[in-house]
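Sanity check. The docking grid for histidyl-adenosine monophosphate depends on where the pocket ends up, so I'm generating a full predicted complex first rather than guessing from homology. Inputs follow.
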Amino acid sequence: MSIRAVKGTRDILPPASAVWNEIEENSRRVFRTFNVHEIRTPIFEETALFSRGVGEETDIVSKEMYSFDDRDGTSLTLRPENTASVIRAYIEHRMDQIAGVKKLYYIGPMFRRERPQKGRYRQFSQIGAEVIGSDSPAVDAEVIELVASLLEANGVRGSRLLINSVGDPDSRGRYIARLKADLEQHLPALSADSQRRAVTNPLRVLDSKDPQDQPIVEKLPSIHEYLNDACREHFAAVCRYLDDRDIAYEVTPRLVRGLDYYTHTTFEFLHGALGAQNAICGGGRYNGLAEALGSKVPAPGIGFSIGEDRLVMAVEEARGGLAALSLPLFIAPMTEAAFRRGALIARRLRGAEVAVEVAPPAKLKRLMELANKANARYTLLIGDDELAQGHYGLKNMASGEQRPVAEDELLAILKG
Ligand code: HAM
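Predicted complex below; grid placement will be based on this.
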C-alpha cells in the first residue's frame, strides 16, 4: 500500500498555498505597523516546558502532546503551542535586560493529538504574538486591536470577540474554592472528565462541552463575583480602551480558556464560517508564567494565537472560493532557435519580477493547450519568422486578439 500523509496532517497545494502566503505577508505587514518583531523558536522543546507552562491538568498536556524520549533519555515534545516557548526564550536570552516592552510574533506549525475534523488538525499553524514586560490594561487593548487589524487586513469580517477576566491568583483561588464546593455537591451528575476535573482543576469544568454537564455549569457562580478591586479595575480599563477603539466585545464570564497560565484578561474571536471549530483566535494575559518557568524577575505578558488553518477557511469563504493561479506570460517557442530566444526573454522579464513560463519547443496546437492549462494572461508566440523580424506574436488569452510586439514593449504591457 502506498504511504499517505499521517492522520490529522495535510499537504497544502497550489492554488491554496498562495492564500497561505498572502495571509502571512499581510500579517507580517500588520505586525510591523504595531512594532511587533518576529521570533523563531524551535519546533521541539523539553516536555517539562509545556507541563509546567501550560499545566499538567489541561487537555493539551494530559492527552494531546506528541512526546518522545531523545536518545539520552530527555523527554522532548513537538510544541503544542508557542507561548511557553516564547517566554522560555525571553528568560534564556535575558530579554528583560533590553529596554522597553518586548513585542514578538511568530508564524508556524503546532502539534496536538486531537480528534481530526473540519478546522481541527494534528499539525496546524498559528499566527501569534506575545507582548511581554507590562501589566497595563492599555497593552491588553492594543493586543486585541492587533488581532482585529489582522483579521481586517485579511478581509475577514463578522467575527465576534468574547472577553473575560480570570482574575489574579488571589481572586481565582477564592473562586476555585467556591467552584470545588459547588461541584462536589453535583459530582455524580457530571461527566467522567468533569468529575475528575472538579477535583484536580475545577475551572476546566466551566469550558466542558459535554451536554451532560451543561445544566450544572449554567448554575455555577460567575468569576466576576470573586474579582478583587484591582482585577475589577484592570478589566474595566480594558473594556474602556476597547470602547475607545470602537471594538465591539461580549463579556463572557465562563471564558476561562484551555490553558492554565492565564491571569486577568482572556479572549477569543469566533467566526461563523467555521462550523463547530469556530474559534479563529484565542489569547489572554499570563502574568505569572515567567516565574512558573523559573524566571527570577517578573515578566507579565499578554498574547494571542490565530489558527491559520481556520483563518484560511474564513478568507476562502469571504472570497467565495479559491481563485485559480494565473500566470502573466507563457512563452510558446515553435523551434529550437525560438526556444533559445524565449529563454533569454524570460530571464530578462523574471529579473523585472514578472512571472514567466517557457515551454520547450513544440507545435502551435500543443503550445496553446499548455498556455490554457497554465491559465496564462498572455502567450508569446515565437517561430523562425518572428525571430527574423524581431517581432513576436503576443496573444491576449481572454480576448483571443494577437498582435506583433518587440521585446522592448513587453515589460510595459505585462506590468500595465
Ligand atoms: P489556543 O486557544 O489553544 O491558544 O489556540 C489558539 C487558536 O489556535 C485556536 O483559537 C484555533 O484557531 C487554533 N487551533 C488550536 N488547536 C487547533 C487544531 N487542532 N487545529 C486547528 N487549529 C487549532 C493558544 O495556543 C495560546 N498559545 C494562545 C495565546 C498566546 N495565549 C497567550 N498568548
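Relevant for the grid: The longest strand covers residues 102-111.
Also worth noting: Residues 66 and 111 are 7 Å apart (CA to CA).
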